[in-house]
Every structure is written in structure tokens, then in C-alpha cells.
Design goal:
- Four copies of one chain form a homotetramer.
- Chain A is α+β, with helices and mostly antiparallel strands.
- Chain A is built from 13 helices and nine strands.
- Chain A has a four-stranded antiparallel beta sheet with strand order 2-3-7-6, with no helix packed on it.
- In chain A, helix 10 runs antiparallel to helix 11 and helix 11 runs antiparallel to helix 12.
- The two termini of chain A are about 30 Å apart.
- Chains in contact: A-B, A-C, A-D, B-C, B-D, C-D.
- At the B-C interface, helix 9, helix 10, helix 11 and helix 13 of B face helix 9, helix 10, helix 11 and helix 13 of C.
Chain lengths: ~400, ~400, ~400, ~400
């Protein structure tokens, strides 16, 4: 195990830190204010576009993509600390063209797309001129088990006819989201894991309706929101299928490994930020004649936060290293493990940071409540924790059978 | 200890249950829909007013007030199970004129108000024709220690001049909130607990500005919301003071005992509702070839939820019984204890109910996310849990000194 | 729900407290010392017998037995607070002839024994002139499911021939234990719950060997110890069967309800004692320039201990009241609930009391380590917690099916 | 960060594993049996000496000592996985001359001893021909704060006169323990951290009495036990002082860094063993018609155990790497962190392994109960967890002051 960061990664970390200090943190309030003042909850702040231009100009762009030609050419271990930094502000990853679900979608196109598909969709995505969404989860089935997916993709001549209801389709409400990767059943007669396919659905195709925004607690997440969508007899040319019929489950699995590293490291970034806020608050507030920072209970929160963050980061780095070195198959236990433990760690730290801030910690005046909501989602997204624990246990038990 | 419910309480429980079955649950969606369709997040749904009329007509009104003439004349033990029922839907307490902060304000007026104050403000509050707010917490100080309150109430001739910044002033944004109980410093030279006073401030007085709504996890709670307020040179006649100068702290303490029973029992109502939703979901959903209700992990959640709810309810009833029998002073340890443990229990149950629902549990499609936010607030409101634990410990330790 | 204690119970509580202050606590060290100095780990201290005589003389005897002729004639609610007091010193229940498994055995004989069986065994047990044991658990099967019991009781003429291996047979090593209630299979062809019988086996019968003492951590519990026993072709007259063939499971269930109240209240007694020790230690020890009692972390332990004990006691009293009022069948969820939650509470308090004492807390210098071991056993005895949680969940879920 | 094991470490791991498979595990029962059959709880089993000879012959000896001449010449990262293996059986470290407190004592002599002291005591310790003890903790003071130590070492001519009471002096009861490192106050007038000294006290000096063995949960740990000792006017020549007067605190600190790595890695070894036992038990036991290994609750225990062990190991390895690379001063937060988190992880795994075994798990029939006791001690030894959490917090907070 070697978690040493390369020179390249260290250099990017330094530049990214600087970018945050100079451009992101100073604009956190401006970002919120611009949306509020627009009177339109779906408004895309101009400051976002300015920051994107700046990041692109500074070469802080597409850092997630391991291909050196299309992206930054970083290994997972090299990219991990960069993902951590971008996690400190919830809307920051997009500034560097590193936000979900675009990153996963770009990886899928890069790995499985035809040249034509890459030209039409991967290129503008890498340039950041369009955004994308991923229509997977369905309201009517337990999507933690992907074989439950019930939307249909039916062959008819040169086309497929798509029908289904999807929700939590992040970005779909964004007018810049031009393309959707849609998962549905093409071959119901196949074995369970070979029934689904993924297909590219341009968002301006007839038959797609945005039914309503889904909320997380009271957040609808504006232009990045997660609406429920209805696909009714949507006609898509056959060439839009990704990889081929029956590969849907395989492609869905493929995005999970690096994607897991990304969102876990971003969650660690949230946790570090929350710890920083907790400590600063504890230094600036007094109760019962003593600074909060001098009170034993809060000191325990701070110490336990530090321990949990350290452990979570080390296990995520080990997972990244395993993927880089031996491939995803050899890292299955760890990929599931970080799903559970990183979010638990982050949730703990954020919760204690909120408590240290009092009611303010739950309000719009700190990023903490939004972080808490984000962390809570992660206990469900990509399959609830319980499914992953079960999977870890079965692998452990099988070693002894 | 005798937690038997009187005939009167049992009868009211039965009628309240029936009212919920017939009128509240069937209107939960209508309530949300009416606000959504109004396009005005501050809209007060007409269905609310209809239900209030109905409740009043059925004698399910002012149940909280122990005075038999003004209210229902119930003891705390008798009222507790009614408060539990009203907690099952977050906006339901108002239907029975039993919602905070109006209940606490009415109690204060009943206990400390002059005849003139009662006539002008208590009467319409009891009739439900107006609403009220309580301006206590301030953004700039740790309000968990009430002696930190810094707003000023300065005597000038026949008037007081009020200045200060308050937040989390629930209801203040409601156009029907005609009166505010304001807490501030009248006598800075007094001993710490005799510096504050409470005064009645009509909300249409010049000098009061609503600065902005405060959010809790993205919720602004519409017409019941909790804005930040600025009081600038607000002139209020001296007769509006409650009780007299220097009684502010004492009056603030007085509302805490029964108020604690109310909100704890409502939290238990939330927890019972969440458990019900969890079980129903577990019976209607399958994963990996087995009903959720047959899966060991979810069974443990359900069993532990039942245990936690039972314990929380028994301790709250004991506290109610202690207050009824020996008075609040003798119930101090318990009044602090339920603050901490009831919310912990409710938070556990709600969290597991959310997890059982998957992403839907975090959305607007169940009442669970709103409940989770409400429970989180209760770990901070009325003083953070840590302050109450400290107070319990000091009393326990003092028994052995 | 009415948890008021009767005059009778209050009077006994007072006398029992006095007895502990005057006779039990002052002899705690003498008890240990006498065993140590005897050089025989199975030695029965003379001080025990003296205290038993004293307790008998003062009418503090057989308090557990609800029959007024044979015992004290107390309801479960009345006896509960007495059991709590006796739990404060691990060997104290025997002083009042209220120790397991004798109490359960006496109840079984009282409820199911013939007149002859009562005369021969119940009478001397009630007098305290003999002791007894209960041979149920077997090393080779999961005894949490009583239908797994595999020892055989085979009819042969006027006798039964008994074969089997039992362990954790508390008291069996005590030379005063003259009688054993043995559970085994008489009717393997019956339905699973009607295969077992219970039979009275005099301990001096040929064919019984004590194989070895079982330890809990490093404790063997001396004369009250829990050996592994071998029964080889033990011949017992048929009249010794209790109740009749096939009633073994039913009789085993019958002892569980009141027995659960007893051991849960004793566990609460342990917890109260541990809290007392924790507070006293925190008042007598300083670290880093401050009394432990003034340190926030320890204050939280004390406060949470108080809350957990209160909740555990209330739920146990409710369970006792349910059994008294509606019978055991109506109290099934609660009987399982207290199994889990009381021990969890006691374990928490004891653990924190140990931590407050440092290494001394783990040694023979306080009763805490022995308590911790006792509490740990209770998470397994009478079926592991997980079995009880499962059973609670199934009952809760069935309400909604 | 580079946790790659060197060829040398990998080779030793392999040989150590083999040694355990061939010699340690097969003798676990024989070891217990030999002591039991000797009728002497202090008996040193002959099998231990045979295994020591074997280990020495195979070069698996003094692995802990980083000096290549005296020991194996391993870095902390290289030794860590070896310490983990030795932790799997509680008495195994001594087989490889790697058991506490001998290892710490040898390190102290190596780092601070004079040539004469090394010749007389270090040499036979390294050969394993004698054992040693460390008299630090005192019954009358909070030894978590080393400046509280109150034993006196008074200069008188060419000698020191030593007086004091010590306890938890592991090994002191062992007849082979020929030498004791004693900590006491030589210079009461100095600044608090310069008052103490450490001195070599031959155990056959007049004036040393073994008062009694201290127990941990009923265990006295036989010949490795932890007695209370009285030192009365013990006369020791001045040349026996280690390093010089006033260096006691500094020397005590010096042993903590690598010592922490050692005991944490051994605790991880215990946890791995416990997990193995838990899985094997779950595969061999059925309840309610299903193998334990197929039950969701037990699967969660197994999965969470794996995650906790992984995290604990990674953080310990990082700490070892920090010490190797930057020195102990730069690893202070981590050295405290692993104290807390490794033991928490191990305690969790051991507790669940016990629960999976039922009552057997608490008995002498598995190593689990002994492990649980060992893990519980580690929450107190070297200073209670709370002291370490406080120290972590202060360092974290200081980064932001």
C-alpha cells in the first residue's frame, strides 16, 4: 500500500486550495444571493459560469477523467485528494467540470460509447458546454436491486420506443442538460442481469415530461434538482444504445467504483469543512462563563471528529489504491465499506458542528444543514447502506465456507 | 405514581382519534396542494380554517389550558395523550388552538396578565381569531443562557423604547399574528436573573421589520415561519409590561414545564406515526426476494423503536404526573430528562423510517423528512441538550455532596 | 396504569433499606474475606447464614412469592422495588431467600407440584434449609430455542431413565443444592412444544457427575457456580415428573414472566449502585486541576445514567403492572422489551462507573467488575437479546398485517 | 504515506503465521490445561519454555527492537503486522520475547541505560533468561496525570531510599522477574515534569512486599499477574538510576510511542481472531431454521467488524509510518487517536463474537472473554481514553487559534 501523492497530484492540490481561497469561499454568499435575487429558484448564477471559465483557464478542468488526452490523466489515488477539496462547497465540483452525474456519464461514454456518440455528446460535456442526467431510479420498485428496473425500451424498426417513470434524475431540470442516459429493459426474456440496456436520450425528444421537482428535506437544489420524469412513447434511434443490448447492468456497475471514490472523498471534504466550522465556532462563543473550546463535551466531539475523518480518508485512499493497482473486482469489500463508513463519519461531524452552532447551524447561515441533507442522501443513494453491509458480510463469510 | 387517564381524558382521546381519522389524515395532501397551487409560500390554507371551525364546534378546542373556564381544565397527565395525538401531523395542533408559541403565550397571559391585557389579547387568542409570536432568541448571543439576552427595553415617560434583533420568532410572518411577547433588558443594574422583562408588542407598531425568513433544512415553514426581526425604537405604553419589570426570566421559566410536556408528547406522536409508516412500508416492499418486514435488520429497527417510544412516553407521563402532584420545582430533573431522551427516541424512529422508505423518505412524499427536521430542531430549542444534561448531573451530584 | 406502591410494599422497602444499611453493606468485605481466607473457593461464608437468620427473624423472607400463605403475598408491582434493593449486592438476594434459580423453582413447585412434591421439596426450599438448581441449557444445541433441548427422559416401568449433558446449572456445585429440576424430552413423537417434560431429580441420585465449573470472564461464582453436568442413566421414579409429560415447555414459559421482573429490577438495583459509586468517585478524585464531578464529560455520563435508569425502571414497573392486571399474555412485548433495555441501561451505567474509577474499577476493590460480568450474562441468559427483539418486531408487525 | 511492507517484514509475517499454525494454536488448550492440572495458579507452563526455545531457534526473537544488533532491526511499519499476529493468543507475545512490560523496559535500557546497566539487565532480558516489571501506577493518585506520582526516591549517601505503594505491576509476581523499573519522586522542588526519576530495583532487595494480586473481571493472569506492591525503605545504589535525576517523566513518555503501536496492533490481532471465531460460529450454528450466517443482524455485525478493523489497522499503520518518518512528536494526535479507536473497534468485534457464541462466549471455552477483559483494560491503561481525546482536541483547536 502506497498512498504517496505524485508530484502532479500535489501540485494540483496546491492550486486547487488556492483557487478555493481566492475564488470559491469568497463567492459562497454571492452565489446564494444571486439565486435569491433572481426570484427564480432554477436560476443558474452567472458567478458559476465565471468561475468555470477561470478554472478551465487555470487547467483545473476534467480532473476526474483518468485518460490523459480527454482529462487530467490521474489515478484514483491522485484524484482523491482533489475530490476532497471540491467537496468543501456543495456546488463547487461543477466549477471544475467534476460534478455528478456528468462525471459518471462522461466515463460511460468514454468507456462504452461509439465514436459518433463521443463526438456528439462526450465532447460538449468535456467542454462543459452542456450538462447531462442519468435516469435510473424508479418510484415503483426497490431500485437498490437494479434487476427490478421496469421501464421498457422496445425495439421497433430502426428505433426504440421508451416508456417509464423515473425520479431523482439530477440535473434533468437544468435547461443545459441536453442528454440523458436512460436505463430500461430491452430483453425481458434474458437472465436477470442481462435484461437492461442504457441508451442516449436527447432531452428535447418528444414524450419526455418533467412532472415535479423532488425535495430532500426542504431543498429542491435549484437547477441541479432531481425531478420525477415521465417517458411516454419516446422514439430514439437504435444507434443511441450504449455498448449494445443487455449491457445495462454491467455499465451501471462500471460507474460505481471510481464514482464511489469521488463522492466519498467529497464527503470527507464536507466533514473537514464542518470540523473547521465547529472549531472556529467553539473559539468564538462562550456559555456559562467558559469558551465552548474549553468545554469537555465539545472537546470530545472535536477529537472524535478528527479520528473518524482520518479513518474514513485512509480507507478511501486504500480503496482508490486497490482499484488503481488490482482493479475494481479486488476492491469490492472496500468499495462497499467506504459507502457506509465515510458517510457515517461525515454525518457525525456535521451533526456535532450543527449542535455547536445552535439554531444557526440548521439555517441558511452556514453550509452545515445543506451538508447534513447531502450526507443523509448518501446513506440511501447507490443502494442503502444495509445492502452494502450485507454484501460485505457475504464476502467475508465466503472466505470461511 | 398513577398514570391512569380520567374518563374525561379517555373520552377526548377517542374523539380526537376520530377527528384525525375523519378530517386530518384525509386532508394532509389537500393542505400541501392548496399552498402549492396558491403560488404563495405564505398562503394560509382554507382547509385549515374549516378544520378549526369543525374542531371548535366539536369541543376539541383549547385543550391545553388547565383552567376549566378558559380551557379544557385538564391536568398535564390528562392532556399529555391528547398532545401526542396532535403531534402526528405537524400542522394539526393549530386546528385545536393548541399550537406553539400561542399556547405558551396564552399561559403567560393567563398567569401573569392584567385584566385589560387578558381582555385585549388572551380573549381573541383563545377564540383563535388572532395568532401571536414570542421574540426571545437573539442572533448575537448564546440564548441557551437567558441572562445573555441583550435587547433593550428603556423606560421613557409613559412608554418603553424597544431596540433589538431577534430571530426564530415563529409565527411573526403570519399576517394573523397581531401580538408579540418580547423579552429584553429593562434593569441592567439588577442581578443577572432580574434584569429582563417581557412586554406585549402589537405587531403593527412602527419600527418592527421582518428581515428575512429563517430556514431549517431548506424548510421555511410558510405562514408559521421563524423570521429574523429588527426592533428599532419601537414605542410601547408601559401598561403593556407583563407582571412587572425584572420578571422576564421568571416568566420565561414558567412556560417551560407544561410546554416541555406538550412538545415531548407531540414528538412521541411523531415517533408513533413514523413507526406506523415504517411497518407499513416494510409490509409493502420486497428486496432480494423477501418482504422487508421479514428481514432481521428491519425487525431490529422496529423492535428498538417500540422500546424507545414506550420508555420516552412513560418518562414524559411521570414528569406530567410530578408537575401535577408536586409542582415543577420537584420535577426539574425529569423536565430536563425528557427534553433529551424523547427527542433522541423520536429521531431514531424517524431516521429508520426514512431509511426503510429509501429516497422517498427524504422527499415531500411522506411526512418523515419534515419530522426529522422538527426533531433536529428540538435538540437545540429551549436550550441545547448539553445544557440540560449538565443541569441533571449537577442535581444528581448535589444529592451526594 | 397505576404504579403507586401499597403501604405494605412501602413498609418492606423501608425495612429492607435499613437492613442493607445495617447488615449488608457493612459485611460486603467480610463476605469476600471469609471466602478468601477459607482457601476454598466453594466455601459458603458463615456471615451469609447469620444474615439469613436475621432476615428471616425480621420477616424479610420469601418476599418474591405472591401467595400470602407461603410467601409475602405481594403483587409484581409491590415486589419490584424490593427486588431492586436486593440487586445492589450480588449475593444479597439469597439472604432473603429470593435468589435465582431457587425462586423460579419454588414458583414451579407452587404452581405445578403435587402435594407430595411440595411437602418434600417446596417446604425446605421456603425454609431455606436446602437449595436447588435448574438443568435446562445444553452445550450442544442453541438453547435460545427451547425446542432444541435434546436430553432424554425415557419411561421404563415405574421410572424414568435420564441421560444428557447440561451446563450453566447454577447452584449445582453447592452442597446444599439437594434437588434439581431437569428438562428433557419424554415424547419425541409429539409436536415440538409438547415433547419436553420437567422432572425433579435429587442431586444425590447415582449417575450425576459435575464435570467442571463454568466461568464468566474469570469468575466461577463459588458455591453459586454454574457447572457442566453429566446425567448418565439416572433413574428417577415417575411420580417426580412435574405436572405431567409434555408440559416442559409450558412450565419453562411460566417462570419467565415474574422471573424477568425480578432480574430486571435487580439489574436496576445494580445500576443505581453503580451510579452512586460513580458520583462518589467523581467527588473524591481530581485530574488536571479539577474535580471529576466538575468535568463536562463525566457530567454527561451521570446525566445519561440517570435518564436510562429512570426509563428502564418505568418500563419494568409497567410490565409488572400489566402482568398483575391483565396477565402475562398481554405483557409479551413488554416482557421482551425490558430484557433488552434494562440490561443495556445497566451496562452503560456500570461501564461509565468503571471508567470513572480507572483500573480500580476493573478489580476486586469495587463491585463494579462483577456487576459488568453479571450484566453481560443477561444479554444472553433467557435467550439472547436478538431473539427477543425479533419477537417484539413480529408482534408489532402483526398489528398492521 | 507508504505502508508497503519490506521483503524482510513479509518474510517474517509468513514465518510467524506458520509458527502460529504449527505451534501456538495447537497448544492453546495444553497451556490452559497444564496450569489447571498443576493446581498452582502461578505455574509457568513448560510448553511456554519449549515454544520460546523453538521461536528463538527459528529467529523469531526480539522482533520489536529496532536495533539490528540487539533485535530484529525493524521499523515500526515493518514490526506492526508481526505484533498483530502475536496478539491472536494472549500469552503468545512472550514466546517471541515480545511481551509487555519487558519490551518497554528493554527499550528504556537500550535508549537510556549505562553500559553496566545494559550488561547486567538488558542482556539477560534480550536472552529471555529473566523477566521484568514496571512499577508506575499508584493506588492513591490519578496516575493518568504522571505528575501525580507520589512514591519517594530519597538520596542518602551513595544510595537512594525508596518508599511507596504501587499496583498493576504486571509480571511482579513472576519468580523470573528479577528487575523492576521503579518511578518515583527524587526532586520534589523541581518543575512538575522534572520531579520524577526511574530507577532499577532488583526484585530480591529487602523491603519489597507483594501485598496481593489484582484481578481484572475475576482474572488474576497467573504468573503474568499485576500485584499491589509495597516498597518500604528499599535501599538501592545510586548507579541504578536511569539516565539521571529528573528524567522520569521524559523516559515514561519515550516508551509510549512504539508501545502504543505494539499494543494497538496486538488488539487488532485479537479483533481479527474474534471475527474469525464469529464467522466460524455463524457457519456452524442454526437458530429458528436458518444458519446464523444467513441472518441479517449477524451479517451486519460481521460487515461492521470488517470495516472497523480495516480502519483501525490503517490508522495504526499511518501512525507507525509517521513515527518512522517524522518522529513521535509529529505523530502525537495519531498516537492518541489509535489508543481510543483501535480498542473501540476491537471491543465491538469481540462483544459481537461473544454474543454469537451465546453463554459459551463468556466462558473459558473460547478466548473471547479473556480478550474482552484485555480490551476493557486498554480503555484505561496508559491513561483513560478521555485524557487522550482531550489532548487530541487541544491540538486540533490550537491549529485554529
Amino acid at each position: 500500500m502506497d498512498f504517496n501523492y505524485s508530484e502532479k497530484s500535489l501540485d494540483l492540490q496546491k492550486r486547487l486550495h488556492k483557487f478555493f481561497e481566492e475564488h470559491i469561499y469568497p463567492n459562497e454568499q454571492a452565489y446564494d444571493l444571486e439565486i435569491e435575487e433572481s426570484g427564480n429558484s432554477l436560476h443558474i448564477p452567472q458567478i458559476l459560469d465565471k468561475l468555470k471559465d477561470l478554472a478551465k483557464a487555470e487547467g483545473l478542468w476534467n480532473l476526474f477523467l483518468p485518460d490523459i488526452e480527454y482529462g487530467a490523466g490521474l489515478t484514483n489515488v491522485e484524484y482523491a485528494p482533489l475530490a476532497e477539496i471540491t467537496g468543501k462547497v456543495w456546488w463547487a465540483p461543477e466549477v471544475f467540470n467534476c460534478s455528478a452525474p456528468d462525471t459518471g456519464n462522461m466515463e460511460v461514454l468514454y468507456d462504452f460509447g461509439t465514436e459518433e456518440q463521443k463526438e456528439e455528446w462526450l465532447k460538449p460535456l468535456l467542454e462543459g458546454s452542456i450538462r447531462s442526467c442519468f435516469a435510473m431510479t424508479e418510484p415503483d420498485v426497490a431500485s437498490s436491486d437494479a434487476t427490478n428496473i421496469s421501464s421498457s425500451i422496445v425495439s421497433k424498426g430502426d428505433n426504440y420506443i421508451i416508456n417509464g417513470r423515473k425520479w431523482w434524475t439530477s440535473n434533468a431540470i437544468n435547461p443545459r442538460a441536453k442528454i440523458c442516459i436512460f436505463m430500461g429493459v430491452t430483453n425481458p426474456e434474458n437472465a436477470p442481469h442481462q435484461r437492461q440496456s442504457q441508451i442516449l436520450v436527447p432531452m428535447d425528444t418528444e414524450g419526455i415530461s418533467i412532472l415535479r421537482p423532488m425535495q430532500v428535506y426542504g431543498y429542491d437544489d435549484g437547477y441541479t434538482g432531481h425531478p420525477e420524469l415521465l417517458f411516454e412513447n419516446v422514439v430514439i434511434p437504435k444507434k443511441n444504445i450504449i455498448g449494445g443490448e443487455g449491457l445495462g447492468f454491467k455499465i451501471a456497475q462500471a460507474r460505481l467504483g471510481p464514482g464511489r471514490i469521488h463522492h466519498c472523498m467529497r464527503a470527507i471534504g464536507m466533514a473537514e469543512r464542518a470540523l473547521e466550522l465547529m472549531i472556529n465556532r467553539s473559539l468564538s462563543r462562550e456559555a456559562f462563563g467558559k469558551q465552548l473550546a474549553d468545554q469537555g463535551v465539545i472537546q470530545e466531539w472535536i477529537a472524535k471528529s478528527r479520528i473518524k475523518i482520518e479513518e474514513a480518508r485512509l480507507l478511501t485512499l486504500k480503496t482508490a489504491w486497490l482499484i488503481d493497482t488490482y482493479g475494481k473486482e479486488e476492491a469490492k469489500i472496500e468499495i462497499s465499506s467506504i459507502k457506509v463508513t465515510v458517510v457515517e463519519a461525515a454525518s457525525y461531524v456535521i451533526d456535532k458542528a450543527i449542535q455547536t452552532h445552535g439554531a444557526m447551524g440548521l439555517s441558511q447561515d452556514t453550509p452545515l444543514a445543506k451538508m447534513a441533507a447531502g450526507a443523509r442522501v448518501l446513506r440511501i443513494a447507490d443502494g442503502p447502506d444495509e445492502v452494502h453491509l450485507r454484501s460485505i458480510a457475504r464476502r467475508e463469510i465466503n472466505k470461511h465456507r
